[in-house]
Design brief:
This protein is an alpha/beta fold. The protein has five helices and twelve strands.
């Protein structure tokens, strides 16, 4: 009974944190979005983890998220295997599929561009590096997603290094975390590494 109560309280805390994080994110101007995206991409491109990674999962940004398309294009140009999440309506989960360009993506769940159903699936265990966004992060590697647990389930299937990306305004003192929530190994922000890459 106590565990259920604790879980319910944590869910409420997460819900309130998401609401507050969305308010903060909505204050980000187009200029901050543009400059922040450039700074984060530059930081990641200069990291040894990016340079050494051969198989990478990234994301296609929504209008209010850091634009990491330069990372996608850099990965493709340098012959890395680049994967994006694709929602499986049959299993109600996210899987990943390899892409060869950004031209053959389709509108997926939640309005997020994703690989078509004919794209080749990749195994999460093949990945070297994952780049992922979220609503909030903290200095201990905590990440708060949009809710639903889709990406935590996906990330639990890989041993790849996990790199969160966020605006400076999305950094919290502490992000509410449950047992199933996946922590980041490193977190990049426009002003630098919130959580430095492991050596």
């Amino acid at each position: 009974m106590e565990n259920e109560k604790t879980k319910s309280n944590l869910s409420l805390v997460k819900c309130l944190a998401r609401r507050e994080s969305r308010k903060v994110r909505d204050t980000v101007t187009k200029e901050v979005l543009r400059e922040g995206s450039r700074a984060v991409c530059r930081l990641i491109l200069e990291s040894s983890h990016w340079m050494q990674a051969e198989q990478i999962m990234l994301y296609m940004p929504l209008p209010d998220e850091l634009d990491i398309k330069p990372l996608l294009l850099n990965g493709l140009k340098n012959k890395k295997r680049v994967a994006l999440p694709r929602f499986s309506t049959r299993n109600n989960v996210y899987e990943i599929s390899e892409i060869s360009s950004l031209n053959n993506l389709v509108a997926g769940k939640f309005g997020i561009s994703e690989p078509s159903k004919t794209s080749k699936n990749m195994d999460m265990m093949q990945l070297d590096l994952v780049i992922i966004c979220g609503l909030a992060f903290d200095r201990l590697g905590g990440r708060l997603g949009r809710g639903g647990g889709f990406f935590d389930r996906l990330l639990s299937e890989t041993n790849a290094k996990k790199c969160g990306v966020c605006f400076d305004q999305q950094v919290h003192a502490a992000v509410p975390m449950e047992k199933h929530d996946i922590k980041m190994d490193m977190i990049a922000t426009p002003s630098g590494w919130l959580v430095p890459p492991p050596t």
